[in-house]
Amino acid sequence: MILADAGRPQAAPAGGEPHRVYLGTVAMIHERRHALARHGAALAGLAVAVVAFAGAARAADPAAATAAPQQDPAARALLLDMANFLARAPAMRVTMRSGYDAIQADGERIEFGERRQILMQRPDKLRVEVERSDGERGTVVFDGRWITAFKPADNVYARVEKAGTLDDALVYMVRDLQATLPLARLFTKGLPADLDRRATSVALVEECSLFDVPTTHLAVRSADVDLQLWIAKAPQPLPRRVVITYKNAPGQPQFRADLYDWSVAPKVDPAAFAFVPPAGAEQVRYLAPRSPSGVPAAPTGEQR
Predict the structure, then answer these.
(1) Is the distance from CB of 269 to CB of 216 less than 8 angstroms?
(2) What is the secondary structure of the chain as a DSSP string?
(3) 159: domain range?
(4) Residue-wise pLDDT tens digits, 190-211
(5) What's the number of domains the chain is made of?
(6) 3-class DSSP string for 16-39
(7) Per the domain annotation, does 174 fall within a domain?
(8) Are 201 and 226 in contact (CB under 8 A)?
(9) Residue 104, exposed/middle/buried by CB under 10 A (0-12, 13-18, 19+)?
(10) Which pLDDT belongs to residue 67?
(11) Positions of the chain with pLDDT lower than 70, given as ranges
(12) What's 213's domain CATH number?
């Protein structure tokens, strides 16, 4: 990967049958019926072999599609500057507003969205507050030993032990728990090496003035996805927008995210990473999602 998908969300079951809701990192048994296949992404993101970054520069003509990969050393340097800055940050806080395409059985493209408030502290702390476009909310916490997911609407939580670093926990969430955590690779120390290894081409698209700070628009390409990044032109080269196109998937669905309210020196309350079950909360089992036969996964911003 690089930022693409790591535990893609599953399609809603046919016929209005009970649906397992995957909340951030946890899947809890819950009744849910959908008229549309949401292919929902609860917190998508970061697989061990994370998504291969990809981004394509605008093609002026059809021949551009078969042209040799663009090798722009300056653009690659900008990409790796961003990655190294994020990998070195001792802590981060950011809000992510994302949307992803759910390709329906008849080919119709439907967008669903989510908002996440992410707080991380190296070497081993993470908290994510999630709100989906349908109003469903959830919280995922990693305290260095336990990964906990909480669903306040039902007052239920699931917990699994996984002592280690933040990188270890993120990999475990995606690879073993099959959780969805969009762009989770952004918060791992291995991001620079993954990007450099998997990006087959990196190109400068333009200098963009539409954000609150000037940004550089890059197009990155890998074998599986096309990735576009808007990186702040500032002492802190933070990503402000990400668009990923799953070019080999049916319908070529996209994942889109705007990242704002960044802080790489947030004031961190240790209590933020300590989950205390509310009164009456019920602990339930983690459930690894099963992909319905013949149903393609939806884009979530990360790829295993």
Answers:
(1) no
(2) --SS-SSPPPPPPGGG--EEEEETTEEEEE----SS-----SS----TT-PPP---PPPSSGGGGGSPPPB-HHHHHHHHHHHHHHHH-SEEEEEEEEEEEEE-TTS-EEEEEEEEEEEEETTTEEEEEEEETTS-EEEEEE-SSEEEEEETTTTEEEEEE--S-HHHHHHHHHHTS----TTGGGGSTTHHHHHHHH-SEEEEEEEE-SSSS-EEEEEEE-SS-EEEEEEESSSS--EEEEEEE-TTSTT--EEEEEEEEEESS----GGGG---PPTT-EE-------PPTTPPPPP-S---
(3) 14-283
(4) 999 999 999 999 999 999 999 9
(5) 1
(6) HCCEEEEECCEEEEECCCCCCCCC
(7) yes
(8) no
(9) middle
(10) 55
(11) 1-70, 288-304
(12) 2.50.20.10
Pair 167, 183: CB distance under 8 Å: no
- Per cent of the chain over pLDDT 70 is 71
Digit-coded pLDDT (tens) for 29-66 = 333 333 555 543 332 332 222 333 333 323 334 444 44
